[in-house]
Amino acid sequence: MTPTARHHRRRFRRILVPLVAVASLAGLAAACAPPANPSWVKVRWVRDAGGTSDPNTGYIAAFERWVTKGGTTTGPTSVTPPDMPDPFRPLIESPYLPDGTARFPWNGYAGEDITVTATPSGPSTDYIATYPGGTCDIGSAGPDWSTPSITPSPDGTKIATITRVDFLGGGSEYTVSVRSLGATTCPTITSVQYSPSAGSDPRPGNQIVWATNSDAIIFALFPAPGTTGASMMRLNATAGSTPVAVISPAEGCTTPLGWSVENRLLMSCGTLAGLQSRLVTVPIFGGGTTNVIDAFTRTPDTLGFLHFGYYQPGTNTIVFNKAVPVTNSDGLLQAWTQIHTVYDLPGATSAPLRGSPPPLVWHQAPRNGEFMPPYAMTDVPNQEFIERFVR
Asked: Is 138 a member of any domain?
């Protein structure tokens, strides 16, 4: 090789390295750009169109339902109050919708053919899961048994349940079970029990998420009284399995929300009594980073807020309720809830589901901490919330 050729080769290497670096950064930036809603996914969501305010009764929202697929949105249709769970506690209190279907599809469309019927029976309520092959008696909830959490698997062949019995003498017993939806019955595949003493932990939370291939579940376990967060426990959906902690309480998270195709766990971190709520993802099996999807820190005057969201089926895209901080006419910070989409990548930027944010419209609602009428009222933004995916 001649000296001139060597000079040009070294010069080419010096130029190539910066070009490769620029191309890599450009690719990362493109990957982190807000995702479009996949054309094969319909997102069903609701928006408060403006309800009624009264210092003696508080605020009653008037929700409308919309469906967005790709770049097209249809609606609205009306939503009567029983159809819409309390928007600030949708995960804690409402594991399934009033029509009996699972509130979450949990990484897929599970629950389309599986419904839960709650039938009053004297002082108790009987819970029956119905599926294409038969029925499954979950049990009864009465004075000594809380409402069970019932979550179908993504492939529709199993259900996972969390039940709780409270004893009159104090203490409780929680049972986390995975059942097979067989030809006519639903035999238990595996189960684990927790029996904390009265008012203490450990105890499981109320939410279950399934692996995308339906071979395991994750649930929260609050390990000790006063612990800020919960351990996230993985339980194989096979006979004789033992739960294993995959996420420690150090993350400060309380509610598992979804298990991605890349084996990352979406979690809500915070409590209604706390001042900060975060939505994060972490690798279930280690070896990766924590992605903070959104965070909101409120003041004592701000209405309570908790993050929740979904992984869109078969993707690493998250649809979630983003808290946009706004200040009202009284100078109080409030969370303006919008539905956003974002890739589960470090530093990714989210965008409104419909491409642009909804109009900022205010209504009068009781100030935070007001429990007895007549309430002191303040301005709060109309909110919107994701409900579920539909075909």
From this structure: yes
Cis ω for the linkage preceding 374 (within 30 of 0): yes
Give the CA count within 13 Å in the CB-facing half-sphere of 120. 2
> CB atoms < 10 A from the CB of 109, how many?
18
What is residue 10's three-state secondary structure? helix
* Domain-ending residue, one of 247, 277, 304: 247
C-alpha distance across the termini of the chain, in Å? 64
Amino acid at 223: P
Paired strand residues for 335: 325
Residue 12 — pLDDT band, cuts 50, 70, 90? very low
Token representation of residue 277: 């709520």
| pTM for the predicted model, two decimal places | 0.85
Is the same domain home to 214 and 265? no
The answer, yes or no, to whether residue 5 has pLDDT greater than 50, is no
Domain with 327, as residue range(s), is 45-84+260-391
Residue 261 buriedness (CB in 10 A; 0-12 / 13-18 / 19+): middle
pLDDT given at position 128 = 86
* CA 255 to centroid of chain Cα atoms: 8
3-class SS of residue 217: strand
Quick check: 282 and 270 in contact, CB under 8 A? no
Taking the C-alpha atoms of residue 114 and residue 136, their distance in angstroms, rounded to an integer, is: 10
